[in-house]
């Protein structure tokens, strides 16, 4: 039996290395009906601003899939951020 105590996930490691959660809304034309648009949502951890994982996925799409891309809208957020601090005027203790 292998103990997994203290083991962190690959997703957490990526976040510590600076990756952020990237979401792309991909609009593409239907292969049989070019006038119709379909949407596909892709989400993965990626590096801002070059987005190598998204770039690889879009290259795969254009090479292997039939639906031509129409547009790609990207949102990106770093999930591990510096803590937000604010001054406190006093400390109150209740017994």
From TrEMBL:
Pfam families: Usg (PF06233). It comes from the Bacteria. InterPro entries: Usg (IPR009354). This is Protein usg. It comes from Bradyrhizobium betae.
């Amino acid at each position: 039996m292998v103990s997994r105590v203290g083991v962190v996930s690959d997703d957490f490691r990526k976040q510590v290395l600076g990756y952020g959660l990237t979401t792309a809304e991909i609009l593409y034309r239907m292969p049989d009906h070019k006038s119709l648009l379909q949407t596909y949502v892709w989400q993965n951890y990626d590096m801002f601003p070059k987005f190598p994982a998204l770039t690889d996925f879009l290259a795969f799409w254009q090479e292997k899939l039939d639906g031509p891309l129409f547009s790609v809208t990207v949102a990106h957020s770093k999930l591990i951020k510096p803590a937000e601090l604010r001054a406190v005027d006093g400390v109150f203790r209740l017994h």
